[in-house]
Prior knowledge:
Layout: E1 2-7, E2 12-19, E3 22-30, H1 35-50, E4 59-63, H2 69-86, E5 89-93, H3 95-100, E6 109-117, E7 120-128, E8 134-144, H4 145-153, E9 159-162, H5 170-177, E10 181-183, H6 193-201, H7 220-228
Parallel strand pairs: 1-4, 4-5, 6-9, 9-10
Antiparallel strand pairs: 1-2, 2-3, 6-7, 7-8
Amino acid sequence: MKVLAIDTSNLVMGIAVMDEGKVLGEYITNLKKNHSIRVMPAIEQLMKETGVKPAELDRIVVAKGPGSYTGVRIGVTIAKTLAWTLKKELVGVSSLEVLAQSGKYFNGFTVPLFDARRTQVFTGLYGQADSGEFKNRWEDRIILLKDWLEKLQTTDKKTLFVGNDLSLHQETISEVLGSQAVFGEVCDHNPRPSELGRIGMQREADDIHSFTPSYLQLAEAEVNWLKSQGK
Length: 231
């Protein structure tokens, strides 16, 4: 199975081309630049470098959010368009699940984290199930950081935090969780598009027409509109 993986859901932009058990190519940047003008040239260049033609792809895998509204929309729109025009399968994977893979060998729980502003975070709890599979243990959510840390205290288990927004919240996490909290190294904070592709290979394909991003909350403009309508 040949797969193209696309992640533009946050500041990190990641593209990977994979063929079964091999990562043919992977492109990652963590730059404050416009994904909308960079992602298609990056896809084209990586596919050219790896010698994979669009028609040879079997599946398009995309990070479906949560994250930046604009970033998520860019990735999902491109993935749906490619899947539809090329008549390929489409699979969406949680952006938090992709980031959490940095801790799949950690002896404890892993918490991926994106800042959601107003002291909120996008997050979830990942770890080994009894079967040995690394999976989501508490569903992805948007939550006040203080409420999330109170929940994590109840696990009484070492917890690895990963994510490029960690520096915004690390002091608070340390104050509340103390030695229970472990913080990832610098290379752990970028989600890997090859991990996105690997997960996507193992999932059932989504329906292209009904597939939608996972924002976990309304956009601020939508919230303001609903308020103006008295809803």
